[in-house]
Write a structure and sequence with these properties.
Elements lengths: L9 E2 L18 E2 L13 H6 L14 H14 L6 H9 L19 E4 L2 E3 L2 H11 L8 E5 L5 H10 L4 E6 L2 H12 L4 H6 L2 E5 L12 E6 L8 H6 E12 L3 E8 L5 E9 L7 H5 L3
Parallel strand pairs: 1-2, 5-6, 5-8, 6-7, 8-9
Antiparallel strand pairs: 3-4, 9-10, 10-11
Helix pairs in contact: 2-3
Length: 287
Amino acid sequence: MRAQVLYPTLTAYGRHQYYCAPRSLVSLTFTPLHHRHVSPPFLNLSLFTAFRFPFFRMEQSGPTTTGKKKSMVENLKRYGVISSKKVAEVMEALDRGLFVPVGSSSAYEDTPIPIGYNATISAPHMHATCLQLLEDKLKPGMRALDVGSGTGYLTGCFALMVGAEGRVVGVDHIPQLVDMSIKNIEKSVAGSLLKQGSLSLHVGDGRKGWGEFAPYDAIHVGAAASEVPQALLDQLKPGGRMVIPVGTYFQELKVIDKGDDGSVKVRTETSVRYVPLTSRDEQIGGF
């Protein structure tokens, strides 16, 4: 649900998602920067600096990676972003520091980080939000599709949740990011799942899904579609759930549930602002 706005809404732009904090968290709606950088003329940069992630700035607790991971998760729990024990366990187990550029000092802060190709790794609060929306469809043995898998962090979280008996597929249309994600996961606690084949990452147009391992219990999409791609609906298993932003300028994060009889129910989780679900050439521009 969108937060009550008692102050001017703070908006920053990027490639994938923007976040509206739940009503129970804050009275100020803010939308952190994700992925493709755009600088609209009405963005007040001094305001953005002054209020930069005022509630979700992560405290670095101790010099060790273990301490930083734990601090990241504990902060998300403290502010009500994470309420699921399973999601907390998975986000603490999979080291986000392995999925950001070498030398980044913000790996465990609640901020998106550029990864090249006009893309970023999303902020931890967005990872937590999507994991919780899909948690019931990420149980051991289930199948999940991650469209726009980037450096592989959320895809790896999915894999840890469904386990070796499940199947997780990540799709991104940037070959270099797919290569990067494979290397990242190989170094992580999810590496064994990649090696034994229950987790795979592929270069492709995510708008078409990945039919080889369909149908999926869970589908996550990381960019806004003007309408829900029929290929993704077709690949959603009866009883499954898809989380996808839908709209052009005004967008909403949709939660789509497919009934056992094939019927589809759609509800709105929150208002969001994503860039379009588009082609590789349109995304990378001058790269």
